[in-house]
Structures are given as structure tokens and as C-alpha cells.
Amino acid sequence: MKPTLEQVRPDPLLTEIAIAYKNPVYIWQEAAPVINVVVENGKYYVYDRGDWFRPNATVLAPGDVAPLSGWAVSQEAYSCQEYGVSTLIPDRVAQEASLATDLRRDATLWVAEQLHLALEKALADQIFTTGVWGTDNTTATDWDDYANSTPLLDVQTAADTVQLATGYRANTLILGSSVMAALRFHPQVMDVVKYTQKGIITPALLAQIWDFERVLVGAAVYNTSDSGVDMAPIWGDNALVAYIPKTPGMLVPSAMYTFMARPFQVRRWYNYERMSEVIRADAVLTFKVTGAALGYFFSDIV
Length: 302
What we know:
It is a single chain. By secondary structure, this protein is an alpha/beta fold. It has a single domain, classed as Alpha-Beta Complex (phage-related protein like fold). It is 31% helix and 28% strand. It has 10 helices and 13 strands. The protein has helices spanning 5-8, 12-20, 28-31, 49-53, 91-96, 100-127, 151-166, 177-184, 187-193, 203-210, and strands at residues 34-36, 41-47, 73-79, 81-90, 135-137, 172-176, 214-218, 221-223, 231-233, 239-242, 256-271, 276-289, 295-298. The strands form 4 sheets. The chain has a 5-stranded mixed β-sheet with strand order 5-13-10-6-7. Strand 11 (256-271) and strand 12 (276-289) form a beta hairpin. Helix 2 packs across helix 6. It is flat and about 85 Å long. The protein starts with a helix and ends with a strand.
């Protein structure tokens, strides 16, 4: 017997549980703000950066006609993909459990975790690599070389580079957890903050150093082994200085966006063949670098 449409519609309660489970380890929604779109495959407008920053206004004498100018517009395509995962609650297991609702909750949290993990890795694989951003810095002295590295100047140079190229000052620093660890004990950083009330170097304190709105630390890890356990960091030992607006919008410049055609949902239905209840989490979206010049990438910086 196949499930009916009513059976596979999103479950509001389980979806609410999944959304409420916001593991602070995952940063994909902060790094790539969500733009809700109507169709899975579409286009968005790209304004020519040169036209917007080329001075066209001029001094006019009485009666002069103002020069006529304008800007070029092109289009870029996006194509959303469906991400999903499901798990089963067999009848025989449910009958042994004290509360079936607890099983549904646990299954919901598990599929939510799996979906977040997949999305986090998909974004990191796409943006934490060379050849994506306006500037790749592969030669800076590693920031865990405390005697020779200059992370304060490196990040400031990155912010200045973004501003000069785009007119927007970088406001976000994204770090792998090992990079954050290196900065936390770097003598330059410690010297700057030693007179502050808080002696522990936190992401918020780092943001204040460069006058950024935020520092995001990618601390999530994943198991690389098909059998057994072999853990690896998702974000590696890289760093990205970027401009990412607080309020996303189709006409608002940003280093990257998440185009989301269907939001995070959890469904459940009964599978008679397996004599089990199915719990499934899914979303339809894609990550898109929408402003390469708005990013400055440090590769293997520790």
C-alpha cells in the first residue's frame, strides 16, 4: 500500500522540533543568508560594478542638459537541489519503547542533524577553496607561526582589498576552528585585547578588533569513514573575509546567498511493507557565490 498525499505532507510539530534544534556548530545559514525563491530554477539580476562606481555626473551651467548615462544589467542562473534523509521506526521497536512520541522526537533530531551536516559540508566545500573569490592568499605566513605571522595586518589588508574592489567594507570573518584556536593565543591578538575587561579571546572580541559585525567559526566535524570512525573538520584550516549583509535581498549585494525553493521540512508516514513509520527531513536549495569580489580567501593559514 502506497502512502497517500495526506500522509506525506509536512508534520508541523516535527518540523517545529527540527527547526528548534539549532546546533550552534552549524553556520551555513549565517554564512550564506537565505533568499526564498518561488521556482527551483531561475535567474537573478547582476548589476555591472564598474558602471555604479564610474563618475558620470558633471558640473552644469544654467540651461545645460545633464549627461545621459546608465548601467548594464546581466543575469545569472541558479538551480536548486533537493537534500533529504529519512529513518525508520519499526513497529516492534515502538512497541518496546515507553513512549512512541520520544522515538519520533529522537528520529526528528537525527534527520535534522544529518541534513544540517550535509548542508554545512556542501557550503564549505564550495566556498572554502581557491579559485572562487576575488582574491586568494596562499602565501601569507601561517597564523600559528607566532614569531613571524601578522594576522591583524593580513585581515585588515583583506578588508581594504574588498572595499577598494566593491565599495563595500568587509563585515564578516569566517574561520575554521583550528584557525580560531591559533588566533586565540596569538601574541599580536592578545596584546591588543589585554586591556579589555574580557581576557578570553572570543569571536565577538575578534570582530571588535577589525570592526566587523561578526566572526563565524566553523567548528563542525564529520565522519569520513564508511565503517568505523575517522573524524575530520568540515571547514579545515582556512579563513574568509567577506561582505555579507544582515538583511538579505535580491537587490542587496552579498558575497553569497542560499536560494531556497522549499524550506526545511519534516514528514512522517507509515510504510506497510516495512511495518515502520518513516521520518524524513528535506529542503530544496542551492548555495550561490553572488559576489566573488566581496570575498578574500586565506588558504591553509595554519
